[in-house]
Batch of 2 targets.
Target 1
Amino acid sequence: MSADELIWRIAGGSGDGIASTSQNFAKALMRSGLHVFTHRHYPSRIRGGHTYVEVRASADPVKSRGDGYNFLLALGDSFARNPQEEAYYGNEEAKPLAENLDELREGGVIVYDSGLLDPSEVPNFDERVEENNWHVYDIDLRSLAREQGREVMRNTAGVGVTCAITGIPLEAIEELMRDAMPEKILEPNVEIMETAYDLVHEEYDVDAPDVSVPTGDHDEDQLLMSGSDAIAYGAIDEGCRFIAGYPMTPWTEVFTIMSQNLPELGGISEQVEDEIAAAALAIGASHMGVKAMSGSSGGGFALMGEPLGLAEMTETPLVLIEAMRAGPSTGMPTKPEQADLEHVLYTSQGDSQRVVLAPGTVAEAYEASRRAFQLAYEYQIPTMIIYDQKLSGELTNVPASHFDREPNGDIGMTLTEEELADQPHTADGKFHRFQHDGEDGVSPRSVPGQKGGRFLATGNEHNPAGHIEEDPDNRVAQMNRRQRKLDAIRADLDDDGLLIEYGPEDAEYGILTFGSQQGTVEEAVDRLNENGTSVKALTVAELAPYPVETVRAFLDSVEEALVVEMNASAQFRGLTQKELGTHGELLSSLLKYNGNPFEPAEIVEGFTTKIVDDGELPGNETKFVPAAGD
Amino acid sequence: MSAFSAIGEEREVDRNEYTPEIEPQPTWCPGCGDFGVLKSLKGALPEVGRTPEETLLVTGIGCSGKLNSYLDSYGFHTIHGRSLPVARAAKLANPDVEVIAAGGDGDGYGIGGNHFMHTARENHDMTYIVFNNEIFGLTKGQTSPTSPKGHKSKTQPHGSAKTPIRPLSLSLTSGASFVARTAAVNPNQAQRILKEAMEHDGFAHIDFLTQCPTWNKDAKQYVPYTDINESEDYDFDPTNRAEAQELMRETEDKLYEGEVLTGVYYRDEERPSYQEEKQQIGEMPDEPLAERYFDDDYEWERSYDRFIDNHK
């Protein structure tokens, strides 16, 4: 058993408090000085159905879920029993135990709630335990919780058991419970946890723990954050005070955080009738000079293509978030995928231009959110952030100093009334909104209510004064100006460090990836280098405009590269080849689209098999697509 | 100088200020009812005391959408059916601006029907003008949601099997606090109703009958109108929902047969607008949100200061 990390999986039924318990547990570990990373797996169902959360903790920084895990806390699914004889979803009672054994590492620990789970329902349980040298603790958490409080508190009992087995001090968890719980339920919870803790000490020999927890020491304050938290806080720090949305998993997380906070910040949140309206509202607020955002997930974002084009043509700043989940159509609502890339890049008619940022980590999600607003308002262009269900919900520790930044309410090139009164903004006594033709293509705007700044914003092609006009020369001039913004943005982004190169600079091989797979790829790169394969990785966090030069330089420096992404049609590789126009023969793809993100070992295996051995993968979890040529 | 000195400016406004001094001049067909909307709007805005620079006109697509080009104010010509969500947010962002949304019957009752229902339900403080000519004009004469049953067009050559939408009843049922119908051929009434609508504090919906001499020659726009607020034959109380509903039902039943009734059908001055409701529950700032972005002294709050304890 590896002593350098704990990967604790709490499994049970949806609605049984798995998420909140794991969040507290992760926070307690973080407070004790460890680096943490959570991975959650849940069904599209509110009550019942197998769900789990993994909390990975290590003294060293952790960037992804691990390979498998080493501690299972299996709670019963209190919603599994179907009172009807003909349960259409079958008997799920054994699932929290049965469904989780495949990935449990050798020598790992199993704690199960014997009040609700019966291992005799799990095929070959005893044989598997023996074979894998698992340490099993059967404890009646349900009765324990019932006797001292309420049955639902058995998750707290499970945490007490975990602490006893791993040596984590109970005080750390208790302290958190005191912060988070109302008085009424605090005492019974603490009692239940302590009783469970003592019970394990009485009945088992845990002085030499089967799984020990490392000790860690951060050099500064850490915060436990999800990608959705980071995006919302980035938006708030950039002065966004208007959001409109329609709920859709996993975009709802950002929408919820913003809605719960904007009123106290004097901002406005609107839940509206559909996603077309949502994006249109953001445009309406932005037109008035307010920093505004909207967003959705794939299916809802499909409706936003129309307002997206309107924002581009009227040059109204707009920030949209696209939280990807598995598609097509409603696909798999609670499972991550990176298959909306082309959707986001190319949706909307005409030669429409937008900026697309794809943060790879929680910390970067905050940067991307701030940057998206800066670019949208500076350049008066729609800017999108794509991320996925994995990054949206995973929690990890980020240094507190990362968020302690100057707020920014600047809305870009918007004139004051004094400026509006002067040439060259006003010609013939009228404000010419789309006239001034700076090198970066941006023309200063005014907002309704300002004296001397009235103009028409229209989705039709228009002349400098804003009037609808189809004159060919005007068309070309306006189109060229709008297109020029992208060159200026590209130059801006080049200085931003949005491309993360990782691994030895002179490595022989490369891995190219984007978005939430960044951490997993980096972990795989470390392992490959430890094993003697010379690999480096490049994570591309700006997808439009595409950083052609940097990617080209990276690919020129390696013999061969593997493109890692979570979709079936190699969309990111396709984009790279389209933008570069070369290097096709260098790039093969490692794809995964079964609803689960990559584990580091899968990338190690994929890389070794494909690039080093030129072989084929044994399983069907992941898939290769060979190099395509130019 | 305030960031928005055009707002609340007290001065005489001449209707000609709303006329763009340069091209384009209206390109509506000769005899088009849309001229009547433009004319009455230009008359009503000065009466309400609104200057072009404190007015935002948000339109959809179609002949009605061209209104924006011919009325010189702040304008936003959006996309088909989407004027209302853009206008709603504009009003929320700066409630001091006079926000008027306009669209056609296809735009407003067809593709934008969902937004219509919800904007009425929420009772946003704005005026919504629907140019109702019972036809798609700019796409050359297809059947619209208000075309009568049996109406023949190139896309419904055997005559429409659909019962036309009932805009007034729909509006009232959805929650609009001001519902009126007027007609382009009666510009004096139209101007009066537009003025009342703008002065109304809540969602004011005007079904504006506009004749389309090009594509809809035989439509009702050519019959005489009766003003229900003026006529002695109609004794009803526009603040009484049930009476308004009854009258709407009657007129919408016979719109394509005989007498066309116009006027203010319903007015609810008691119901607070959405903005007021939102302010009451603490979800909307007292000062216009837009002003904050022009205030150099405003102290923006950092997420760190507020939320960080939750994550420690």
Target 2
Amino acid sequence: MTVTGNTGTGTGTGITSTPAATNPTPPPSGHSETTWAKGRGEQVPQGHRRLLTHRDRLTLGLMAGLPTILHIALVWVTALASIALAFTTWDGIGFDSIKWVGLDNFRELFTNNPQFWPAVQHNVIWLAVLILVPMPLGMFLAVQLDKKIRFSRVYQTAFFLPVVMSFAVIGFVWQLVYNPDTGLINSLIGANKPGHYIDWIGDPDLNLWAVLVAASWRHTGYLMILYLAGLKGVDPALREASALDGANEWQTFKNVIFPTLRPTNTIVLVVTIIEALRAFDLVFVFNKGAEGTELLSILVTNNIIGESSRIGYGSAIAVVLLLISLAVIIPYLVATFRKERRS
Amino acid sequence: MSASTAALSKQRTPLRPARILLHVFLAGTALAWLAPLLWAILAALRPYGETSTKGYVSWPDKLSLDNFTNAFQQSDMLHYFGTTLLIAVPAVLLTLFLSSMVAFYVSRFDFRLNLALLLVFTAGNLLPQQVIITPLYRMYLLVDLPGITMSGKLYDSALGLVLIHVAFQSGFCAFVLSNYMRTLPHELTEAALVDGASVWRQYWQIVLPLCRPAMAALATLLSIWIYNDFFWAIVLISTGENMPITSALNNLSGQYFTDPNLIAAGALLTAIPTLIVYFALQRQFVSGLTLGANKG
């Protein structure tokens, strides 16, 4: 099973698994002798080699090569450039002004930047909340909606609607809800008068939690869909057996359904971690990532579109984000692809 | 097994009160879920003058679509739908085209590089965009394209946005499509190979048509994601006029959208196309999200 991210509009991530069960037989090509083809380092099995003409191999090279060049140039070269630039200062004008400064950027970041540690802390809180609220709630809703009840479609749509909308629009909608003077919450509880005034957006003790409600609101629907897909994989025979044994609903869930949801849980966890690291749009629209809602992604971006464009410094923050991401991505992909190779 | 199924059906019949309780719970939760959206709709339907004097929690005297028409006209929204289409359509088509070629390569042939290639694509798509944005932004400023884009650079151009969308999304699509293509029986192309059909023909006439369901699902997903994109657009586009609609909305609020009711209307208007796509292609969208999450 593998998860892949998306544009980072945070619009969810797709999921795939190698259908090991339905895997077709491997192609009947001899793996005996291999030859280096075109110096591109791929080894072509004999069986294919005899059938692939020169032109075919050129075609294949182009088919895989062009998209790969584009992807590597814009995604991986830039990621590596982030790492390289993190150890330099550069004003962006001309390449000869790049100066090597070693770990200075990081030193300043860790000791001198009043926003850095709060941002790390907020990213951690963001992740913790997404794990503690949308995960169980999404699973619970999925299990209930999986019972073939009436109106299931209607309920699903209600929970899923926020996932279809952009984070920016969600940011605006929740601004209307939280607006201290005219918002839904303060209007209802009468907290928009002087003396009894709650500033959900501006108060640095409250605004992170306010945004997190919106983030959880959206993430729950997304996870519900993933869990519903996972529940379709539960063998009905198991449920029947469990019911026959006189197990009640909770016992059936605990002993039969939950164990089969293990792969889904892995995917959900990875999706959630990536989502927490990517969180940006919602906060940016909500209050520009001002005091109380700083995130690593916001710090990187402010460095670009803000007043000071310190390239090396911005890259250093990006490297911190990259390292945290890779700590999740690498073990996950290694495990996934190892499984695929075995199948 | 008939005896057991009979016993089962007896056990399966839900207890009525429990079922009713479940419906009450689900309906209540669903309503709570829709509340913020309903609030935005209600605000957008009321004139600002009325809500500012009576407060928002009050019985509306008058509901009208004025805010919607004003938001649409004042912000020149039609223009922004245009800029968005100009970015989203080529980006979706190119992403599907390029990633299906990569998928074809890694799933139908067993070259040594395949696994590494797929890993590169998959991992690339999992990175947070902010990891690459600083050098990307600089790169876009450095690339001169005189006469090709309005800005003369990759920066601040639709082309620049299309390229980064394609590069970033093709990771996800290549992965999904390669899994899909792997399930197609090899005999399909083996025969063509023996008959001497070129690999291009195998891809274009045999494999691609069979991938239609997966392509449809991915196209739906990509359209919504790219339409909803906010981050690339606010960093890589500087001229307000060139912005796609989602980031334009952010730009316009405060400039044309002065009161909360107008902002609500503007935000809801930008969400309408995605909602239409979702309701029209619900099954594709959901299956795209969960593609292959369960076997079969």
